[in-house]
Amino acid sequence: MTADHVFAALASPARRELLRLLLDEGPQPAGRLAERFDMSRPSVSEHLKVLRDAGLVAENRKGRERHYRLEAAPLMELRDWLSPYERFWRERLADLTTLLDDLPDETGRDETGRDETGRHQTLPDETEGEKEDDDVRRQDD
Asked: Which CDD domains match (predicted)?
């Protein structure tokens, strides 16, 4: 199957849920899968047919039942198709991280603790501010 068939099959939330069920719970008969959905059994069977035609599930007949299992090969092909885009976004996010690291923080300092003039800046000790607040409260009493 082509990537287009696989993408078309994955476009449906119901079909993605069928794949998730087969991944999490293993091969199952169509009837058991249909019980999990708020739709008719023929509708679930149609979704399973689309997945089968795309190569995403395999069907085995056992007596009168049809059992379905996940086939991962088409998903691997999609992963291969998507990997250049993953690299693209990873590079963009790395560039963004570098840009953000170079920006000064809300105190005007960069990651080294230096301000825009290049001087190392320290913040006043917060405990001193707390002492001043306590002194003001005592004077008000």
From this structure: HTH_ARSR
> Residues 75-99, buried b or exposed e (16+ Cβ, 10 A)?
beeeeeeeeeeeeeeeeeeeeeeee
Whole-prediction pTM: 0.60
Give the pLDDT score at 90.
Answer: 81
Q: Are 115 and 104 in contact (CB under 8 A)?
A: yes
Alpha-carbon distance of 20 to 10, in angstroms, equals 11
Instruction: Give the residue from 81, 80, 30 showing the smallest Cα distance to 51.
Output: 30
Name 1's Cβ contacts closer than 8 Å, sequence gap at least 6. 53, 54, 55, 74
